[in-house]
Design brief:
The complex is a heterodimer. By secondary structure, chain A is an alpha+beta fold. In chain A, about 20% of the residues lie in helices and about 25% in strands. In chain B, a hairpin with a 3-residue loop joins strand 1 and strand 2. Classes of the chains: A alpha+beta, B mainly beta. The interface between A and B is large, with 40 and 35 residues. The structure holds zinc ion.
């Protein structure tokens, strides 16, 4: 019921929303929870395992029950806490985990079956013989999961925001605002972050007629401080922003809802911002969270946390009941009774565990005529969809005897089991906690970073002490040297608080094993489950947590973790201080994947690199293959050709006449300096000192473990000038590795490395007629093998553009690679195409490139090698220098393992049936046996060769080099394929075509 | 995320750097004279200390220089940053106390365990 004197809501702006299809009215400034409660809707959803009716219990991010499916279609979002959703006009929410409706839920039968869902149910089920799984799968699948994920693409945008500041203040309650005022007056860059849509923290739930600061109501005080903070240029305040992670070196992550009152439907506009904040100092003013009490049937709708009930009353002007009962173990809940009294609503009874009640608030309540049951507990409740009555009895007695109990009717039960400081961020920052026995609090002890905790999150709960402590600790922390008079001293009336009395479990007439005493409301974990876990031998709190799933739901146990510890302590007799806590993990509250991804989606997910000739490939209908970040032309289908038809045509045309390949993606490193030859001697397996200027040499690069990491051709351009090429995929890592050796092991070498991959476009002309093209391109140059032999280089000019032309080959044909400055690459490419028209010049892509090199038995690093292959395994002993004393990888080549004779070695494979193209990666066996068959090797490359008119393959086979002519078998699921081990060079083994 | 003080550029976010593993492992000058075991020792064996560890870091998305970092692997505190050719600094505590007081081997968050 809405009272008419609320301070936060604008009573003129009424808005409507939908819950489970019914239209309701609320006010701007409401949360979904407050609007529902104002409409007297307490039943919000069904619980996870037992499908018990559940209602809202809190007014903040700790809410375990009041979670809804927000909006529909692409805008839908599961598991949103109604207590955090800012109400907007037209909001649509649905209850979760119920079928067919929240009022009549079929799954409620689980509640009757609850003996079958004990702690560890899932583990035990999974461990049973597999045939039982069929019986349970349906059951579990139906029970698991809360809301449903959106199935359509997220229409929102998300942004990342980097921020640096001197002081970050988390929380804008009394201590947060005070800390901001002190920091601001020190001229520090201050960022004040509030998770709710409005600043104020506990001020929002405060009764305006008491707990004044310097005689002002807390609201007036807040207004004044905010005005002052807004006048500072060095202060930034952001709301609706939850800091969910506190990492190294004061690096914090926050998630901001942009304009939450506009709701979830922000098509194509920014919905959330992920803040990445690096602060010099952090002040945590994160407040505290009230704990429920664990008693039988403590989960009925209408059973709520006392502090939250006050917030709905004082902050939203909502009275939640007419027959109100309070159950507490401390003084703070008396404030709720007093608050209701101010609205002329009398609380029926306060049930207080304690025999001695001597605080100021209880005295006030008593003087107001409120009935107090001292030394009593609520041991059970009734009411199916909402609470209707409580059973009370004296704490010391048992209620097995009916005479001891009394039943009180009620429609609202406010409970308070004490307060837990919100130490999540503090412990994420790796600060150390200590346990305070008297009010069962874990409070910050030693910080690990530049951070302090002030106010309730530091375990200080009374207003006067909060003001005093905040002032002192913030001034010390910020090293404030200015005189004391500069900052106003705030004071509040002193209130004496009585001692809290903890009772973690309130026994009922039912034994624990039959009781429904909920600890974790969202995951439906009861005291019984914890007892079972302990009796089954789980001792560590971390194990009990995982076995029972206590604290593992989307609320991360904000209301349940300390209670679970208390119950374990009570059942085992071990002090809580010796149990420790579970780890407070990030994120503090759930974070959307959208915010984490930010703008890095679709085409921005990773960098796309294109060659200077890319446009031509697009114009000529190329299909592309991703090679690292590069988009490489894969093949160029003509006239509805299939993949195989196109590739066969490209391969054949290259051997028959001329093929042209865009090889611009090859890594190119320009190397200069006095000691380059020596450097190359060290990083490649072969010798480089005697390479003549103008000559090219193929090199294999190893890791120091002897395994092949890269290969490529390096050209000596001048006395102290070389151009190294690397494989496309390894360009960056090879560059990094070379820099590493130079900087850390060989600083004495004078060598300069410059990546020039993108400075050149590389055009590769292959085939018997390629010479005709280069002769027209560079008419002044003689291209005969005598004057421009294989493995040599010339610097030539086209229209005054200098080109580096190498005669090297990756196809086994005569080949000229023309390196052109990138901006001219496309025009030279076009020129080649024009000149080659009469010779059927055929552009070919990476697929044909692979076939051509496989026909010739050339390896591809990363295909024939996988990090476990040495050059000796590749039968490339010839490239490994025997004379050099050392090079990277040399010593490892004769370790006991690398010198084994039965290592997998590179061979060719021919299928007996020439039409079968083997699948790459298939295993080879000598004889077929029962499974598992001993495997002797695997296929690394396999293609159809149009030039040979049959399939070919390369493979790594144990002792393969000595087994040429031997037959092996490729066992597949429906047939066995016979293959013969051959030489890996299938075309032109004498290199006659290559050297022609 | 760490904040690393590159000796050449100053403080930068960790995402600009890459870690190159344990520092002060020199490549032997005489590999052919080493036994398999000695070579394997250089090649494969690295320390994995819970506490003070000396590491190589590269400012890969910055100046691309290699340098050394003394880091407490249990707390992620960077205790020193120094050039690649410098000897490891003598640091006060070679046995830093882990922040939550957890044991030196293994994990666990016994945050309230008294000594
Ligand atoms: Zn740098």
């Amino acid at each position: 019921m809405r009272l008419n004197n609320n301070k936060n809501l604008n009573p003129k702006k009424q808005i409507s929303f939908y819950f489970d299809g019914t239209k309701y009215q609320g006010y701007e400034g409401d949360t979904l929870a407050s609007a529902l409660l104002a409409n007297n809707i307490h039943l919000i959803g069904r619980s996870f395992k037992y499908h018990r009716p559940r209602g809202i219990i809190s007014a903040g991010c700790e809410e375990p029950n009041g979670i809804v499916q927000l909006e529909q279609d692409e805008f839908t979002e599961p598991n949103r806490r109604a207590t955090e959703v800012v109400l907007y006009n037209g909001l649509v929410a649905k209850s979760q985990n119920r079928w067919p409706s929240v009022n009549f839920d079929f799954g409620e039968i689980n509640d009757l079956l609850s003996p079958f869902f004990p702690a560890g149910f899932y583990y035990k089920t999974f461990m049973w013989p597999p045939k039982f799984w069929k019986t349970y799968e349906h059951f579990i699948r139906h029970a698991a999961g809360l809301g449903v994920s959106p199935k359509k693409e997220d229409p929102h945008k998300y942004e990342h925001y980097h921020y640096h500041c001197d002081v970050l203040i988390v929380g804008s309650g009394i201590s947060g605002l005070y800390a901001a005022k002190i920091a601001a007056s020190e001229k520090l860059q201050v960022l004040l972050v509030e998770q709710e849509s409005e600043t104020g923290g506990s001020i929002l739930s405060a009764n305006n007629s008491n707990n004044k600061i310097n005689g002002q109501s807390q609201n007036e005080w807040k207004k004044e401080i905010l005005e002052e903070l807004h006048s500072y240029k060095n202060v930034k305040i952001i709301t609706s922003t939850t800091l969910f992670a506190y990492m190294h070196y004061n690096y914090l992550l926050g998630i901001q809802d942009i304009d939450p009152s506009r709701g979830n439907k922000k098509n194509n506009s920014i919905r959330q911002v992920l803040w990445k904040i690096r602060a010099k100092k952090v002040i945590l003013a994160t407040g505290s969270i009230e704990r429920p009490i664990t008693f039988n049937n403590n989960d009925r709708p209408g059973i709520m946390l006392a502090g939250s009930v006050s917030k709905y009353l004082n902050g939203y002007g909502i009275s939640l009941g007419k027959k109100i009962i309070i159950f507490t173990n401390n003084d703070s809940a008396y404030q709720t009774a007093i608050d209701y009294h101010h609205h002329n609503i009398k609380v029926s009874a306060i049930i207080d565990i304690r025999n001695e009640i001597d605080g100021d608030l209880p005295s006030l309540a008593q003087s107001l005529g409120i009935k107090i049951y001292s030394g009593y507990v609520v041991s059970d409740t009734s009411g199916r969809k909402k609470i209707t009555s409580v059973t009370i009895r004296k704490f010391e007695e048992k209620d097995s005897n009916k005479k001891n109990t009394e039943i009180l009717e009620c429609d609202l039960l406010c409970m308070s089991g004490g307060w837990s400081p919100t130490v999540h961020l503090f412990t994420q920052s790796r600060g150390k906690l200590k346990y305070r026995e008297e009010d069962s609090c874990f409070i910050p002890d030693q910080p690990h970073q530049q951070t302090i905790s002030v106010g309730a999150c530091n375990g200080i709960f009374d207003l006067k002490s909060i003001l005093e402590d905040t002032r002192k600790s913030v001034r010390d922390f910020l090293d404030c040297k200015s005189n004391d008079g500069k900052i106003e001293i705030y004071d509040a009336e002193e209130i004496n608080f009585g001692k809290q009395q903890n009772s973690w479990l309130v026994s009922s007439k039912d034994k624990i094993s039959k009781s429904k005493m909920f600890v974790d409301f969202q995951n439906d974990v009861t005291a019984k489950d914890i007892k079972i876990a302990l009796s089954e031998g789980f001792q560590s709190i971390e194990h009990v947590k995982r076995y029972t799933t206590n604290g593992m739901a989307t609320d991360q146990g904000k209301t349940s973790n300390v209670n679970a510890l208390g119950i374990i302590s009570e059942l085992t007799g071990v002090d809580i201080s010796n149990l420790g806590t579970t780890t407070f993990r990030l994120p503090y509250t759930p974070v959307t994947f959208g915010a984490m991804a930010g703008r890095y989606v679709k085409e921005f997910f990773d960098i796309e690199r294109t060659t200077p000739i890319h446009e031509w490939h697009l114009d000529n209908d190329a299909l592309f293959e991703d090679v690292g970040q590069w988009k490489r032309a894969w093949y160029y289908p003509k006239n509805n050709e299939t993949f195989n038809e196109a590739v066969n045509r490209e391969v054949k045309a290259t051997r028959d006449s001329i093929g042209i390949l865009d090889a611009s993606t090859l890594g190119k490193i320009d190397i200069k300096g006095r000691d380059v030859s020596e450097f190359l001697n060290r990083v490649y397996t072969n010798a480089w000192s005697k390479l003549e200027i103008g000559k090219c040499r193929y090199g294999i690069m190893l890791g120091d473990d002897g395994m092949v990491i890269d290969d490529g051709v390096t050209t000596r351009l001048g006395e102290h000038h070389y151009l190294m090429t690397t494989t496309t995929g390894n360009a960056a890592s090879v560059m990094g590795k070379l820099e590493d050796w130079l900087q850390t092991e060989w600083p004495e070498l004078e060598v300069y490395l410059t990546s020039v991959t993108e400075q050149f476009g590389t055009i590769s002309l292959n085939g018997p007629n390629s010479r005709k093209i280069v002769e027209s391109l560079f008419p002044k140059q003689n291209f005969s093998s005598d004057s421009f032999p294989h493995m040599s280089f010339k610097e030539l000019e086209i229209d005054q553009v200098k080109c580096l032309v190498m005669r090297i080959s990756f196809t086994g044909e005569i080949c000229y690679e023309i390196n052109v400055p990138s901006s001219y690459a496309l025009s030279v490419w076009n020129k080649c195409i024009e000149l080659g028209k009469n010779h059927n010049i055929t552009p070919y892509g990476t697929e044909a490139m692979h076939v051509l090199r496989a026909e010739k038995g050339y390896i591809i690093v990363g295909q024939e090698t996988d990090g476990s292959v040495t050059p000796v395994d590749l039968d490339m002993d010839w490239i490994v220098s025997k004379k050099k004393y050392d090079f990277i990888g040399k010593r490892a080549l004769y370790r006991s393992d690398t010198s084994r004779k039965d290592r997998k070695q590179l061979v060719g494979l021919l299928t007996t049936d020439p039409s079968i193209v083997l699948e790459e990666g298939v295993q080879l066996v000598e004889v077929e046996t029962a499974l598992p068959m001993p495997m002797v090797g695997h296929v690394t490359s396999s293609y159809y060769s149009p030039n040979l008119g049959r399939s070919i393959a390369l493979a790594l086979v144990k002792s393969g080099l000595n087994k040429k002519g031997t037959k092996l078998i490729v066992p597949t699921s429906n047939k066995s394929i016979e293959v013969e081990i051959t030489d890996p060079v299938f075309i032109d083994p004498k290199n006659e075509r290559l050297l022609a | 995320m760490l904040l690393i003080n590159c000796p050449y550029c100053g403080e930068r976010e960790q995402e600009e750097f890459s870690c190159g593993g344990e520092a002060h492992i020199e490549r032997p000058k005489n590999p052919p004279e080493l036994s398999d075991d000695q070579w394997a020792d250089y090649l494969f064996l690295r320390q994995n200390i819970k506490g003070l560890q000396f590491e190589r870091w590269n400012h890969s998305f910055g100046c691309r220089k290699w340098f050394n970092v003394a880091r407490n692997t249990a707390t992620d505190e960077i205790l020193a940053v120094y050039h690649i050719d410098e000897k490891p600094p003598q640091l006060e505590s070679n046995d830093p106390i882990t922040p939550c007081g957890e044991p030196k081997i293994g994990s666990g968050n016994f945050s309230t365990t008294k000594k």
